[in-house]
Amino acid sequence: MTFRSVVKGCGAYLPEQVVTNHDLAAIMDTSHEWIVERTGIHQRHVVEDGDYTSDLATRAARQALLRSKIPVESLDLIVLATATPDDTFPATAVTIQQKLGAHAAFAFDVHAVCSGFVYALSVVDNFIRSGQVKTALVIGAETMTRLLDPNDRSTAVLFGDGAGALVLQAEEVSSKDKDTQRGVLSTHLYSDGRFRDALYVDGGPSRKTMGYLRMQGKEVMKHAVEKIGDSVKKALEFHKLTPQDIDWFVPHQANIRIINAVAKYFSLPTERVVVTVDQHANTSAASIPLALAAAETDGRIKAGQLVVLEAMGAGFTWGSAVIRW
Fold this sequence. Notes:
By secondary structure, the chain is of the alpha/beta class. It folds into two domains: 170 residues, 3-Layer(aba) Sandwich (Peroxisomal Thiolase, Chain A, domain 1), CATH 3.40.47; 142 residues, Peroxisomal Thiolase, Chain A, domain 1, CATH 3.40.47.10. Helices cover 32% and strands 26% of the residues. It has ten helices and 13 strands. It has a five-stranded mixed beta sheet with strand order 1-7-6-4-5, sandwiched between helices. Strands 8-13-12-11 form a four-stranded mixed beta sheet, with helices on both faces. Strands 2-3 form a two-stranded antiparallel ribbon. α3 crosses α4 and α7 packs parallel to α8.
């Protein structure tokens, strides 16, 4: 018996506090025009004092569960993708489990920074395919603004906070309809630690320092399009698909120049690319599920359509996923 992970519901949460480029220009040496030209970002949402990653994640998860019409008691697994956990330990996923009341589930975190959601999706999909799990919640949630150095304008303008979630449920695959049946078709993951110093936080518990996010922007840009493009190409080849088969391309929302370059590489028209970086900035592991939730909510993504995800982040880590929605 073969199972496929079918998306049953999407959820999202963005903090109410919005910080525009003009707000940042009032406190640092930058401008709205400079930020938009280089990144495509117009604004970002910033977490309120007293709110944590688990709070954002729990709100997104509740919305996903509500939309899926699946009771929380049915959850077998919760996987949270985050680089900004509430605490060093325990895993923030168990805090979410407690807040949701999902006492029948087991829960843990996955840490692959901006690629985290694709990595977490892959983990959940493999649990479902193996038959170990029937119903799962996969979440990407971040409070990235708490890692930013306010004196470093090259990074302080790039990131925002938020959370997105998907409810996935196992459905048996019919051999007759496997090419058109809904669900996660495949995930493809990669990493290369030789590029660790291109994007990192210069602190952590083992170093006994808190640290700030540091990035070599030109180095990241240099590799992003190539690595992302290659992962998407391999995913399409795996299924004998072409870029023309893609209904929706949902990339990690890091920089509009990267998004546009990858879309151009595959000759994808802009109307088939979901873009939220202008409103959300880079929310790391939360960016893809936030974009998915936005595009499903407004009716763009519909059941049965082919959706391709991609991400690249610190490590470097990168990857792609193909979903029949």
